[in-house]
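Readers of this paper often ask what the protein records in our data store actually look like. Nothing more is needed to write down the fold, since each code stands for a local backbone conformation. Below, we set out a record of this kind in full and without editing:
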Amino acid sequence: MPAIPLRAGCAALALIAATPALAQTPSAQELAALVKAQAAEIATLKARLDRLEGQNPPVATAATAATAAQPSTAPDQQVAQQQSAPPLVITPFAPQIVPPGPADLDVAQARAVAANPAGVTTEWGAGLPVFRSADGVFTYKPRGRILVDVSSTYGSRYKGRNTTTTGMRALRLGLEGGVGPHFFYQFESDFSENEVDIVTAFLGWRNRLGSKVDYDVRAGHLFNDRAFEGSTGSDSTPFLERSTVSTAIIPQRGFYGIGIMGRLFGPDWHASVSVTGDRIDGQQATNDSRTVAARAHWNPIKTDRSLLHVGAWGFDEALSSAANTLTRSTVIGGRFNGAVRVSTGELLGGRSTTGYGLELGGYAGSLWVMGEAGRRVARLTGDRPDFGSKAWSLSTGFFLTGELPPYNPRLGSFGQPNVLSPTFDGGPGAIELTARYENLDYTDLALGGDGWAATLGVNWYLNSFTRLQLNGIHWRTHNRAGDFTGSDDGQTVSARVGVTF
């Protein structure tokens, strides 16, 4: 008699114990039926193990086919069907930018993810994987950003300005994800100054108001929606540093604040409103400053290869008693030379400020142009007059390799480009030439200075998330306070290696 598997033998003993007649005279037909049933179960388990180990699927037999038809193995069939389903492709908001992450999807894209379960999936996108649960409900993606800079200044009449420095513009780790089509979240910390700094950290909810309009609401530590370059992430700006409009016409708290923001999105426009307090800190002994901000953009012309951008923004802040110092010293020759700045001189006793600005630009084919202007009015205590600061910039760029500018029509800002022929695939990557003129004026104050800078640059995108940048800046300043007074000019050359996941 052939050997009986252990599990089959145990079943046989149970059958013998339960049936005295069989214990005495088990028939060959009954034992054969029992062995056949156990063989079918073993074949089913082997098929499941082969799928888990990634081996070739076993050849179906009559026993396995019969077993697979039973309700107990129907889930296995469903898993096999899900694993063979094609990966879900998220359509970006514009073909020239990389697809959005889980926290940046619109509700239609998020619903498509939830409605297309394909088993537990791991999809490699822009540098890091996107994980999706088997039912499509849970989505998760790690985030990272490494921007390494070097800067050298020469030509200044002040020796203290002619320096060569290195620094990390950004060194971030974080995550983003979603639960179902509506709930999403994002969190990032920055370590670039050799200390932990919480940057983006929020929870959000998205939905539709109609067939053409959707919205999202997010609460937490929020990045400003203010100005074109001010709303563009540091990993997506066409220059190593944002223009003076974004760095000078800004709330006293800076680029981030804790609060709530609501955004509306149409086919060719968006609008946002936010109410925020201070940045994340450990100071709860006094009131936070309060900032109300709004921004809107519109694309009155929008074709496959051209677009016109019109934007406006503004903010109003009531300053905390602990934040009434409005002294400002703004970089004009790159971020990593702290000596090349335009200064207001000492300015104390601020009560509130109001800022506003306009944006006008667009692209035609591979050429883009963007102009920005902004003004900030600071109201001071006592009988002192208001202080107004002004800034404007004009920027342009051209992709020699034929890419469209990485404009995001959903947000009215730049994103990461979709490189047509990455270097890692044997292509040239994407090569962009850039130029900018920017101006800053603090001369409403008795000790306020002014300055301007002209920049020429080249960006080489090896692929959609890796790039090299080189900027040459000619700058001029005229300060009436501080260590470097009077007229001065010089040149700064800066370079960056950047990777964004």
The mean pLDDT is 86. DSSP finds seven helices and 22 strands in the chain. The CA atoms of residues 8 and 38 lie 6 Å apart.
